[in-house]
Design brief:
Layout lengths: L13 E7 L2 H11 L4 H4 L1 H4 L11 H14 L7 E9 L8 E12 L4 E9 L5 E10 L5
Antiparallel strand pairs: 1-3, 2-5, 3-4, 4-5
Length: 140
Amino acid sequence: MKGKTIDELNPGQTASFTKTISETDVYMFAGITGDFNPAHIDETYAKTTAFKTRIAHGMLSAGLISNVLGNQLPGPGTIYLQQQLNFRAPVAIGDTITATVEVVEIIREKKRVRLKTVCTNQDQVVVLDGEAVISPPRYR
């Protein structure tokens, strides 16, 4: 299975992936990364923060972008080269996050593609946005 080559991509193409963030996701992410910040895993502590509840790691939501790039657009064979992120709003356990990527620019001479990246929650609130640069698969 191969993703789209640079010749199969056009500005404006989009793809998305949606996932509800569970308590298990947050604990597993903490275990994988070693980020045991109590804002993510300790409800008693989290009640003392500005958010008043535990929030998911920002990079957990950002990781959903990787799902879209590696599985859909461009898809298998894609190499993630760069990601710029702006964290706009917290993600609570139980929020449903949709990661969307949109092709913005094809840089043929460098065999690169620039994409707009956005994650929104179930209320259409942007929780993070940014821009990615990838190298799409060379051959189909």
